[in-house]
């Protein structure tokens, strides 16, 4: 090591990549419930785990100096996620974006001199959002389950279909989140776990019936209003529920939110601005993803318009 390199600080040992990642994750864990949602902390843990596997399997190393990360390393990690880990394109991109934050921290702290992500672009593919049709939703609601646990999960899922609440928000929902609205009816007034934005949602009759069903349930604790299981268990039971109900779709807690946006509200003439506000979206553009898939509703509306115009033409002909 030359005197010049020593003077410039180049003789200092380089920060290690996974060490930086772990330091970041430790801070995120400490801020869960304040600045971060539990799901965000979980995604960073998973991203670090995938990166550690990539280093071990592809490079035969337990860790590397952060200065060794270059564009080739990033592209290799993305390829590994898609091939060896079998991640979808969008899932792989999201993990790389998690990794990108770690590199940005290293760059901001001067641990690396250039940003290896400078020429890497995150391009997510547009995904067609699945939802239940009105017929499927009715079939699910009226199916009789012999297993009480399946019935509880179905009820929680249907409640989300009629409120638009995400899993994390319905799980933490308590009696304190309900208020009497300006119309004199019951409203949900809560803050979204993911974005911290306010959601004000009138409680529709179906959702109210479910709340009343569990009002005195011994399954409820800490002022909770519904017996919501872990997300993993919910999704596992929803798969069984779909099979028993004859619904050929991959039911997840998030599909219920999509169903609220499409089948329950937009398809019934609720304005996209109102839907966006109830969903707690920060941007109307996010809500517009749901509106794109309502061709059936557009077709129905245009059929009514055709009949109306046809009737008007007949009236004109008779009066001519």
TrEMBL record:
Domain Tyr recombinase: 127-310
UniProt GO MF annotations: DNA binding
Keyword set, alphabetical order: DNA recombination, DNA-binding
A biological process from GO: DNA recombination
PROSITE patterns: TYR_RECOMBINASE (PS51898)
Family classification: Belongs to the 'phage' integrase family.
Official protein name in the record: Site-specific integrase
Organism in which the protein naturally occurs: Flagellimonas sp. MMG031
Taxonomy of the source species: Bacteria, Pseudomonadati, Bacteroidota, Flavobacteriia, Flavobacteriales
